[in-house]
Amino acid sequence: MISYSEALDLVLAEPLKLAAETVEVAKAHWRFLAREVRAPLPLPRFDNSSVDGYAFPSLGPERRFRIVNVSAAGDANFSHVLPGQCWRVFTGAPVPPGTYGVAMQEDVRIDGDWAEPGDVHEGQFIRRAGEEFKAGDVILSAGGLLTPAATALAASVVSEVEVSRLPRVALLITGSEIARHGDELEAGQIFESNSFAISAALSRLRITPWSVQFVGDDRTETIAAVRGAIENCDILIVTGGVSVGDRDFVKFAFEECGVAQVFWRAALKPGKPVYFGRLPEKAVFGLPGNPMSALVTYTLLVEPFLKAGMGALEPEPCRISTTILEDFRHAPGRTEFVPGVFEESGVRPIQGQGSHMLGGLARANALIDIPSDCELVPAGSVIHAIPFGVN
Q1: Among 55, 77, 76, 75, CA closest to 66
Q2: What is the DSSP letter of 166?
Q3: N or C: which end of the chain has fewer CB within 10 A?
Q4: pLDDT of 341-356, one tens digit each?
């Protein structure tokens, strides 16, 4: 049985090679760039005013200037401001060539067509052309995520970007005990929730499952479902049936379908029976059936693999150094990821949650990393936590 860090290394060792595609910037948010974005023009494009005020040439002994023109946002009048003259300018408007500096309107005394400024230093309140980026500069790197701010930056210079193709992901939910909403709930059955959890988690990466299938604990049906999903997808995620019980057929189905096992079982809590396997240009994950275990192992292993295949610069889960606010007792042997809540002074564990329980996980916004060799993590200890359930 391997450690979590070893499992993550194996998952990220050979990402899928997903082709690039060109999409409109308006449709590219939350995608990963397959190619860098370069500025075709300088940013800002031209010298412009950062305030509403007046543009002055060099100030000499004469401190009285005639107001001869106005420059508003969107104007294209680039005639020079001459000695003894000034221009009324507005925020974002081009400043005329020859401008020494801009004075805020509240610092200028106006007498009819004449303006008398206070002190004005060279370059004051002027945004210089190219001060952020010069033409040809890389403004967004390949592998970067198009967050709202990054999308806005891309849109300021281009109309299309190259992003990595979204992988085709199939979900297979196993278990004779599960019932789908709309079905009659028989004795001994529970409503299925894993497809909702994994689909919602995939949506953070703009991925919609190519298919969602359900199969009972039947060997023949499981093999057929696995084979059909593998043929039509890049990545298959199966929940349940991957352990060693008499009615756990998923691992056997993987073998029958030619999946090469990379690892099975990790020293991880929750999620010990997690499985990862490969086929040419495809990958297969077997996650535990318990809802908490399925979602945690997706977060820790599947999502990083998806991000790596989509070209993310940093596919690994983000780890934040913080302080644990309560004592936490832990049985040594496996790395444990405990649901927690970030607070102003640290992170507080949600204790007493089994792998079948979703109540605590629904309140959590952190997974607290408890090292495998710890028996007690005292309150006030510096630990690591992974943001959970948020973009």
Answers
A1: 55
A2: P
A3: C
A4: 999 999 999 976 665 5
